[in-house]
Design a protein that fits this description.
The complex is a heterodimer of chains A (279) and B (175). Chain A is of the alpha+beta class and 279 residues long. Helices cover 43% and strands 19% of the residues of chain A. With 175 residues, chain B is an all-alpha fold. Helices cover 62% and strands 0% of the residues of chain B. Classes of the chains: A alpha+beta (279), B mainly alpha (175).
């Protein structure tokens, strides 16, 4: 440890710095300087008192907190095989989990409300909470909830694209990039993070990018972390309300393109996206 | 750094070896056990999911501690000025009682720690409890080395004042 003199707290002209006293106590002082410091300490009771206090402070910190080192490490804190990691990590009952569940339930209720016959609300709840929510369902719900938004269709807008990608990459735990659909006439509006509750009870996150066409039509591309399947062909599902979804899995990520568009258009866009990430 | 074995077995993962250290530091930093455990858990979640971003060969320990530091800083910002462990009240009397000569009163050390500005507490703990070099502490906190040194100095001197000025008989005897 070399020193950046900060002036001595004790005798004005003393040939040592405060930094050196700390470095001496912390065992970070260069060996050749140690002997000189020891002489100074021996000669100056005030310095000696400081050294003694700092030393005992360090020792007391260990005495007070070292027992924590011996506490057994909860299993949830250890790594798990990737496909179950999130289940285990998220199991601890925290307020956040309630928040995620509530947000999902809320989103589901809104989506159900707007896409289903209003006469049978109990089924909507059952559907959200108990039924498996495969990716096409989840993507369609997110599409339905957010595309009608005028003021808040996305959480982070495309003009902050770099921030958007790094934020979503952090939250998704893997590099995330929005597809570029400019030459198909779809302009990126931005994206958002979404909660996911799986039928396994697994709670994690997904994200959605939204695109807009010149005529005001909107399209979403939904990504969800998926331990399995590893890769699939394109599949198509049509949801109530005319929302079509083309989805596939690739490199343990689920993709779903959702829009009120004919099947072949969705498929063309899906192909385009697939090619962008596999070129 | 110790404990960075190369085995891939999950219990031997180098992160696992650091968990007790993260936990000890969090406990000392925050005071409240439950809050500290939450912080460690959140930090580990983030660390596992970002492990692919860790540069192999770089210091894993400072990487982990800086993840925790950043999370904690975000939480603290969100919680605004809520005191973390103890009231920040200068009239607060430290519970110093006569004790064995070579031991500071445990309650006193915790109370004094809690009254330090957090930026000073962090440095004192990283250096004095986690035995980090000053350079490592600077990396964890993302501050210049000189700032580490001045926070360390001010923090330790403040603690010395708190723990000796109130006249605890056990502390006056420091030779």
């Amino acid at each position: 440890m070399t020193t950046s003199p900060m002036g001595s707290g004790t005798g004005g002209a003393a040939p040592f710095s405060d930094d050196e006293i700390h470095a001496y106590v912390d065992g970070q002082l260069a060996a050749e300087r140690r002997g000189e410091l020891e002489q100074i300490i021996a000669a100056d009771p005030e310095v000696a008192a400081r050294v003694a206090f700092y030393r005992r402070l360090n020792a007391e910190l260990h005495r007070r907190f070292d027992h924590v080192l011996a506490e057994p490490v909860p299993n949830e804190w250890r790594p798990a095989p990737v496909w179950q990691r999130r289940v285990r990590d998220r199991r601890a009952p925290t307020v956040r989990n309630f928040g995620i569940a509530a947000a999902w339930l809320f989103a589901g209720l809104i989506a159900g409300w707007s896409t289903h016959d209003l006469v049978i609300p109990p089924k909507i709840v059952e559907r959200v909470v108990e039924r498996p929510a495969p990716i096409f369902d989840q993507a369609a719900v997110a599409f339905t909830v957010f595309t009608p938004e005028v003021r808040h269709p996305v959480e982070v807008r495309a003009d902050e694209a770099q921030h958007l990608m790094s934020w979503l990459s952090n939250r998704m735990g893997r590099p995330i990039k929005a597809p570029n659909l400019d030459d198909a006439g779809w302009r990126l509006m931005g994206g958002r993070l979404l909660p996911v509750v799986e039928d396994t009870g697994n709670r994690h996150v997904a994200c959605q990018f939204m695109f807009e066409r010149g005529d005001g039509a909107r399209l979403t591309v939904y990504y969800k972390d998926a331990g399995s399947p590893d890769a699939t062909a394109f599949r198509y599902a049509e949801q109530t309300g005319g929302v079509g979804v083309v989805y596939w899995f690739d490199d343990k990520l689920g993709y779903a393109v959702a829009g009120k568009l004919p099947k072949d258009q969705l498929q063309t866009l899906a192909r385009k996206i697939y090619d962008q990430f596999n070129s | 750094m110790s404990g960075q074995g190369m085995s891939n077995a999950e219990d031997d993962h180098p992160i696992v070896a650091q968990i007790p250290h993260l936990r000890r530091y969090a406990r000392a930093l925050i005071g409240d056990r439950a809050l500290a455990e939450d912080l460690v858990q959140d930090s580990l979640e983030r660390a596992w999911s970002r492990f692919h971003l860790w540069r192999k060969g770089s210091n894993l320990r400072t990487w982990l501690f800086s993840i925790m530091h950043n999370l904690h800083a975000n939480l603290a910002r969100n919680a605004s000025r809520r005191p973390l462990a103890a009231p920040i009240d200068d009239d607060f009397t430290l519970p110093v009682r006569p004790t064995q000569e070579d031991q500071m009163e445990v309650a006193a050390i915790e109370a004094a720690l809690a009254r330090l500005p957090e930026e000073q507490r962090q440095v004192i703990l990283l250096v004095g409890l986690e035995d980090m070099t000053y350079q490592e502490a600077a990396a964890v906190l993302d501050i210049p080395l000189g700032t580490v040194m001045s926070r360390l100095h001010r923090g330790r001197e403040r603690m010395r004042e708190m723990m000796t000025a109130s006249g605890g008989p056990g502390l006056r005897r420091v030779k």
